[in-house]
Design a protein that fits this description.
The complex is a heterodimer of chains A (122) and B (413).
Chain A: E1 7-8, E2 21-27, E3 34-38, H1 48-57, H2 63-76, E4 80-83, E5 86-87, H3 92-95, E6 97-100, E7 106-115
Chain B: H1 2-5, H2 7-10, H3 17-21, E1 24-28, H4 34-45, E2 49-53, H5 59-68, E3 73-77, E4 95-98, H6 103-116, E5 120-128, E6 131-139, H7 165-183, E7 193-198, E8 209-212, H8 216-227, E9 233-236, H9 260-272, E10 277-279, E11 294-297, H10 302-315, E12 318-324, E13 328-334, H11 343-346, H12 349-355, H13 377-395, E14 403-406
Parallel strand pairs in B: 1-2, 1-4, 2-3, 4-5, 8-9, 8-11, 9-10, 11-12
Antiparallel strand pairs in B: 5-6, 6-7, 12-13, 13-14
Helix pairs in contact in B: 4-5, 4-7, 7-13, 8-9, 8-13, 10-12
The chains are: A alpha+beta (122), B alpha/beta (413).
Chain lengths: 122, 413
């Protein structure tokens, strides 16, 4: 996710929408999260929330990834999944931004954070 | 008495008050509010020895800092940091907070930091083209990053510069957080902490504002509203001031036993010639919010936050909701015309409260001294500053974004 050029997925050309979707679910403000890739045809029109649930319910993770999954689930208990500070109440494409790697490979990226709200203030 | 005042931060895991007690912190400031904000908050946190080199300090803030903390010892040297010969002023300091707006001081301090291995925490407001914001970076030897170029102010010598009381509140909080991290041997941010938004203009209107909760968030929201020039706010809070509040509720230094809302309203009226009101009552479903243009949520429980969300949605009122813990916080904005989720909906508060199996939305009030939740000044002043800045953006026709602050992350927001 370094050195990327971003633009809203919904503003891209039609052919650019046939890109893989990179979904990253981060616990709280962690710099890195759990990365899941959805190939074209497997995510369009699907609810972003359902894609997140699908990713989190997968079983085959490395030990490091499993720790992140547990951290996300912990944050989510008494918290919510948000994308750029907003609720995820639409399709993945509505939240995706087109990016490209240093090697020039294009993809759509959706960053999700599991945020636990803070209660205090007094 | 001192331990009781600091009680809420002593509850934080790994907290080491002794390092704060015994620290000596240098500050380089300007003829603006930032250094004064920092020293006020540092005093509340229990940092007792400050050496400040600045042409002037805000007398009111200095006065409050001394009343808050009987051990507070301030050495104020009036002037600018324009020559290395001034180095000896800071002999024995654990770190230096560089809050100045002239390049010469910035360069001299970075050199000093490199040469003597003293951490330098740099924080300042900036205005460039059509943007305003702030930058904070913690320099320790070995971190000669490219970002250092961005920390040196373009004007070498002291001159007129952009300053903003609301942003100063946030910067002072973040710099103090880094100060605490260095003194306690905890990790500091690895990144340049950057906040920008489009320029804003002063509002000509005098909106009627309701601030619910007059504790740590409410105090700094009230202060921010004063900086914006708003004269008429209503502060609502049924609680009285307790000694354990004084590590963060800076305006209540002499008000233990008095009503929070009344004390805050009176103090702001006196300091800023405002015309605020106080209501010593709970906010509940019967509270009339019709007379107000905007509502600030500065409460300390999700149950009231849900009621606030529902009432503002039903009455079409803009709601700016803040919440904090010892190391995190959030600002969520509800704008009625946008048809977006309320703070309660966005944050999933219904689920959280539902799991608590609470039958009534108004939880039984208990004295703060029996609530073990830790709390410090920094997150409260940071979140409150962002709440007021969001309001200012809203009044200027900009779209404020929700802010999620985390003191343990590198970027913070």
């Amino acid at each position: 996710m370094i050195d990327v050029e971003r633009k809203k997925a919904l503003q891209t050309d039609e052919d650019e929408k046939l890109l893989p979707l990179v979904l990253e679910i981060m616990p709280g403000h962690a710099a890195e999260g759990l990365i899941d890739i959805y190939e074209p045809g497997s995510y369009e029109g699907k609810s972003l929330r359902k894609l997140c649930d699908r990713t989190l319910s997968k079983k085959k993770w490395s030990i490091e990834e499993q720790l992140i999954v547990e951290d996300v689930i912990r944050q989510r208990e008494g918290g919510n999944l948000l994308c750029r500070g907003q609720e995820i109440d639409g399709t993945a494409l509505e939240y995706a931004e087109a990016e490209q790697t240093e090697a020039g490979e294009k993809y759509l990226y959706v960053p999700i954070r599991a945020i636990k709200p803070q209660e205090g203030g007094m | 008495m001192r331990m009781k005042r600091l009680d809420r931060q002593l509850r934080i895991e790994g907290w080491n008050q002794d390092t704060l007690d015994n620290a000596k912190v240098g500050v380089v400031g300007d003829a603006d509010l930032l250094a004064s904000h920092y020293l006020l908050s540092a005093s509340a946190l229990g940092i007792n020895r400050l050496i400040v080199l600045a042409p002037s300090l805000n007398k009111t803030f200095v006065d409050i800092a001394k009343k808050l903390n009987s051990r507070f010892n301030l050495t104020h040297i009036e002037g600018f940091y324009t020559h290395p010969v001034l180095d000896e002023i800071f002999n024995g300091c654990n770190l230096i907070a560089d809050l100045s707006h002239y390049g010469l001081a910035n360069k001299l301090l970075l050199q000093k930091g490199y040469r003597e291995k003293i951490p330098i925490i740099r924080g300042f407001c900036f205005e460039q083209y059509d943007e305003q914001g702030f930058k904070v970076f913690t320099y320790v030897r070995g971190r000669e990053y490219q970002e250092l170029e961005q920390l040196v102010f373009p004007n070498s010598l002291p001159d007129d510069h952009f300053d903003d009381g609301v942003l100063d509140t946030v910067i002072a909080g973040i710099v103090l957080e880094e100060t605490k991290n260095i003194l306690m041997g905890q990790e500091v941010s690895e990144d340049l902490i950057l906040y920008t938004r489009k320029k804003t203009a002063a509002s000509k209107n005098q909106p009627s504002t309701l601030v619910i909760g007059s504790g740590a968030l409410g105090i700094f929201v009230g202060l921010g509203l004063a900086y914006l020039g708003f004269r008429h706010s209503t502060f609502m809070d049924p609680d009285i001031v307790e000694e354990t509040n004084l590590n963060r509720q800076v305006f209540f230094y002499d008000a233990v036993g008095n009503g929070k809302a009344e004390t805050l309203s009176r103090r702001l009226n006196h300091l800023f010639r405002m015309d605020n009101n106080a209501l010593m009552t709970y906010f509940d479903r019967e509270t009339d919010i019709a007379p107000y243009d905007i509502v600030f949520d500065c409460v300390d429980n999700f149950e009231t936050r849900i009621v606030l969300s529902e009432k503002c949605k039903a009455h079409g009122k803009t709601l700016i909701s803040g919440g904090t813990s010892a190391d995190a916080g959030q600002v969520v904005i509800y704008t009625p015309g946008k048809n977006g989720p309320t703070p309660a909906e966005l944050l999933g508060l219904y689920d959280i409260v539902g799991k608590r199996k609470v039958d009534s939305f108004r939880r039984e009030r208990v004295s703060c001294s029996y609530q073990p939740d830790p709390s410090v000044i920094m997150t409260n002043q940071i979140v409150a500053g962002f709440m007021v800045d969001a309001y200012r953006m809203f009044l200027n026709g900009q779209e404020p974004v929700n802010v999620f602050y985390d003191a343990t992350s590198n970027k913070r927001i």
